[in-house]
């Protein structure tokens, strides 16, 4: 399936997750400065929250183009586009002096950073078979959720020490560093361009080290003779591919449920500054620290869920006498991959419903700081664990266009998240945090039958797509 051995694949996935760190870092580094920005531009915090809404709208839209481009011309060119747009937007944000400028440049910043998470998942599809994809997907999303953990902390420290502009100058320096690493080191992995890695890419698509050494920086394992693999079928860039996946059977149900899940997810992280300022009188530095348990829960979920998915895949394969050949892609036409992934999601979704209700009421029932922080950890663990499993299932559904499939998930969850963030502030002001969180849990419960539908009908729908593609 891939000429790269395990260590080389882990290195590539690590670099992909290092780049994916940019997207959640950019979103979360901003939260501790919300109150200061409202004072700076003389607007309400609800208006500043609108910059989060437009950020999420573009975060959903931009990967639809990047994912489709990367599936056809390669991962490296798509990464370069993301980095250049992102770098320019951060320079503009650090220099601008108006609320309108903040709003517009946050949109451009989102367009640049959001594609990196989509590309990290596509990188996993290039390198890992379905039997080991869970663990690699966990590694790929680890950096993204590390951004959930340290983004608010970095933002809080920078804002308190140097002011809100220093946040964007930090992002300028960090993105430039990652950009250089990718230009110098990372080879092309897209299967439509290089097959299993044995076919040379276009000359303009070779890393700097590839030019300097006259070969790929990462070499195939010399002890294993690997014949040259044909490229995956080349297709024209289909900018409507994301929409087609959103309205397809099976994938559409998964995407809709993920949208509801992440709508609730974004409402909770957006309201952390308000909740902890009102109830504990925290400043931006202290609010940044409050995000740390949430981010740590996200990181733990990415690793634990990945391992659990691989374990469950192998358990079901053994039960069904389904052969697994290491290093080769498995034929999933007769394998219940929907069941294997959704079995991991169900307990996580239940934990998320219970946790979000407890978290909302905890501010009214106790003055303890530890209680909401512990619940933030479990909230992050449950929601991101479920999201990791869904992301893996989408790649299983569309192994030849993983960038487009991941972009479809990104589009729906971000747009539904944007609507939820715009709605949660006025709702919580009217009915309180406890009932607002109950409303979130009810939405999750009412949308849960979508999981049963995919579990029951998913294999038949997947076979329909396979026959239609042939």
UniProtKB/TrEMBL annotation:
Keyword Nucleotide-binding included in the entry's annotation: no
Subcellular location: Membrane
PROSITE patterns membership: MFS
One Gene Ontology term, aspect cellular component: plasma membrane
Occurrences of domain Major facilitator superfamily (MFS) profile (ranges): 12-459
Keyword terms of this UniProt record: Membrane, Transmembrane, Transmembrane helix, Transport
Membrane topology: Multi-pass membrane protein
A Pfam family it matches: MFS_1
Chief location bin: membrane
Protein name as it appears in the record: MFS general substrate transporter
